[in-house]
Design goal:
With 180 residues, this protein is mainly alpha-helical. It has a three-stranded antiparallel sheet with strand order 1-3-2. A hairpin with a 7-residue loop joins strand 2 and strand 3. The protein is elongated and about 65 Å long.
């Protein structure tokens, strides 16, 4: 059984003799699967009338747990947005009825953002759709293979997360192309 990555690796193995073909195959497949999953998410969101950024706000509120409420500053921090960028996003979500913003009784300057019933429904529909698509993708693997893959990927993530922020693991010494 061959795939597009096998052809990709064959081409580069001829061009770059120092390249590790197994490493290249692993990362090319991870990138391909990530692109496939991202595009599938965008397609499902579009068919449901949501955009990816809207879903991320709903996801963040849901991730906060009951009562699915948070402050705009907390949401902005979780989403990596400025307060202004988040405010614009919240306005359109509120207009769509997916969230509601309320002021705290004791301090009207404090705003709380909460998922509405429609927001819960939109989130659940998207999650169910993603679950089905991801299970379809994993259907190529037996249950034991899924467990093994999950364990191997966890091992890689643990190692990556152990590295100091912004620092890649030390690369092995070896020939590099001219000019690098």
């Amino acid at each position: 059984m061959r795939d597009s990555v096998d052809r990709h690796v064959e081409v580069w193995a001829k061009e770059i003799d120092w390249m590790d073909p197994v490493k290249e195959a692993i990362f090319a497949r991870l990138a391909l699967l990530a692109r496939y999953a991202s595009q599938a998410r965008r397609d499902r969101l579009a068919s449901d009338g949501l955009r990816n950024w809207q879903y991320k706000v709903l996801l963040t509120l849901r991730r906060l747990g009951p009562p699915y409420t948070g402050s705009p500053s907390l949401l902005a921090d979780h989403l990596g947005l400025t307060r202004g960028a988040l405010s614009a996003r919240l306005a359109s979500l509120e207009e769509a009825g997916l969230i509601v913003r309320t002021h705290e009784r004791d301090d009207r300057r404090r705003v709380r953002v909460r998922l509405t019933e429609a927001g819960h429904t939109a989130f659940e529909q998207q999650m169910a759709s993603e679950e089905a698509a991801e299970l379809a993708l994993l259907s190529a693997l037996a249950p034991a293979e899924r467990e093994a893959l999950a364990g191997l990927l966890r091992k890689m993530v643990v190692a990556a997360e152990a590295e100091p922020a912004g620092q890649a693991p030390t690369a092995p010494a070896g020939p590099r192309p001219a000019g690098s």
